[in-house]
Amino acid sequence: MSFFKKIFSSEKKETLDKGLEQSKTSFFDKLNKAVAGKSTVDDAVLDNLEEVLVSSDVGVNTTLKIIERIEVRVSKDKYLGTDELNLILREEIASLLSETNSGNESEFTVPQDKKPHVIMVVGVNGVGKTTTIGKLAFQFKKQGYNVVLGAADTFRAAAIDQLQVWADRVDVPLVKQSMGSDPASVAFDTLKSAVTQNADVVIIDTAGRLHNKVNLMNELTKVKRVMQKVVADAPHDVLLVLDGSTGQNAFEQAKQFTAATEVTSLAVTKLDGTAKGGVVIGISDQFKIPVKYIGVGEGIEDLQVFNKFEFVDSFFK
């Protein structure tokens, strides 16, 4: 299809291809077995395809949507060969992702009408939250933005220390207090400092505890309220970081956090080294929240802006 034109640089595309290699190999191994000995897309092939999609962590609800779309194509075209199934899948998944993701971005940008643009980052410990913040800071700085970080995950000394390491590495200022300090107080100080420094982007880390949803909700609400004393409509983006390698567990985390706060975008990390890349498709569809960034490697450059066309192109390459 014409919309699968190349948007990424060849280097970024190569990183994306490599990062999705295990997911793609696993998916096509299963798909090839599902259509073995078949020449047309019939009910048996669709049943097998359903099983392939579910086992690839696309999720049951999203899988059913994809199967329904393919059934419409089959009934309309009357005869579809299994050779065409790859192209049909590619088109229908891209179409499904289009409903949530604008999909044509390739660079790290922020709206010009919000200064500073405030991003509050949420997610459980261990999903790559701090690393994502560090890589985001690097990418925004690379684009010429003035970036300030805030260490509002004050429940773990390690979280503050890790963010300091990233701030030093990227050479951006970090606003922090001692462990156990009030997270809202850190957020307030961060925004005051950012305004004074005429910062373009502020990224604030928050605690990743899920054992008590009510406490989490109250804490994030308080952080937001205190931020708004400095920047009236902050935060402009609530970014939920999910570990793509956990498959269905990532769905559960998304469910918990979207119930606790208003999540506006997603970052799916650790897609390299896992066969569960299909989770990006399911989470994007099920929660109707755009996937903004994906992690496809350990390098500082390996956090990418999510582009649905490039993602689908790499997945089905």
Automatic annotation (TrEMBL):
UniProt cross-references to Pfam families, sorted A to Z: SRP54 (PF00448), SRP54_N (PF02881)
EC number: 3.6.5.4
Gene Ontology CC annotations of this record: cytoplasm; plasma membrane
Molecular-function annotations in GO: GTP binding; GTPase activity; signal recognition particle binding
Main location: membrane
Catalytic activity: GTP + H2O = GDP + phosphate + H(+)
Coiled coil regions, renumbered to chain: none
Binding residues annotated for GTP, in chain numbering: 123-130, 205-209, 269-272
Record GO biological process: SRP-dependent cotranslational protein targeting to membrane
Keyword field: Cell membrane, Cytoplasm, GTP-binding, Hydrolase, Membrane, Nucleotide-binding, Receptor
Listed SUPFAM superfamilies: Domain of the SRP/SRP receptor G-proteins, P-loop containing nucleoside triphosphate hydrolases
Membrane topology per record: Peripheral membrane protein
Stretches that traverse the bilayer: none
Annotated SRP54-type proteins GTP-binding domain residues: 290-303
Entry's localization field: Cell membrane; Cytoplasm
Cell membrane found in the keyword field: yes
Family: Belongs to the GTP-binding SRP family. FtsY subfamily.
Subunit structure: Part of the signal recognition particle protein translocation system, which is composed of SRP and FtsY.
NCBIfam families: ftsY
Function text: Involved in targeting and insertion of nascent membrane proteins into the cytoplasmic membrane. Acts as a receptor for the complex formed by the signal recognition particle (SRP) and the ribosome-nascent chain (RNC).
Name recorded for this polypeptide: Signal recognition particle receptor FtsY
Native organism: Mariniflexile litorale
